[in-house]
Predict the 3D structure of the following.
Amino acid sequence: MSEKGKYIPLNFTELDKETMASNSRKFLDRIKKRRTVRSFSQIDIPEEIIINAVKAAATAPNGANLQPWHFVIIKDIKLKSELRRLSEEKEAEFYSEHAPEEWLNDLKHLGTNEEKPFLEEAPYIIVVFEKKWDVLKDGKKKKLYYTKESVGIATGILITALHNSCLATLTYTPENMLFLNELLNRPKNEKPFLLVIAGLPKEGTRVPDITKKDFDEIAEII
Ligand SMILES: Cc1cc2nc3c(=O)[nH]c(=O)nc-3n(C[C@H](O)[C@H](O)[C@H](O)COP(=O)(O)O)c2cc1C
């Protein structure tokens, strides 16, 4: 017989169908305004917003509730400068040597290059780590499940929470991110997943003129 843990009543708010549909429309309108920004103002923002967004991310569904993530919130100016220096070093290698032609072509419309001034300009950088396994108190390895899926969902909530607080974000993945373990003093069971840059957009910021696929192209109802 399987053993069940303790259960508690679900904290669930029921709404009438019209309000539900109206909420879904409002959310869609709001999330459609999210755009990746690559140019940030140096104006500071309340730290609480970042902390609450990370707390929101940490509510994500995840494999066996083992919560395979760690978030490093960087606000220290010297650390941001060092992060920029190291990232630009890697990016220069990416753009001039490692990147296949097809990838460079696909990136052309974004106008990105090896320069990453946003790493120093934005007030906050959140480095998301994916825990590949856990380490128990006795030093033994503990298996974790669906770590990539779990951290991906948590990161989606993180970006949505920041957007909901009217902050701009950039999802940033420098070439070969393993240098982040040493820079941020994280153990080897944690793999850098991506960076979320957060702040206010620089005045006059422009974004690539792109579109999203229509519902019919990406989904079906059967
Ligand atoms: C996993 C992932 C990695 C990304 N890495 C970078 C990056 O290294 N540099 C960058 O400028 N944008 C990066 N982006 C942002 C995408 O280019 C951007 O989301 C895409 O062009 C769509 O634009 P939008 O976010 O404004 O809708 C990344 C996005 C994702 C999801």
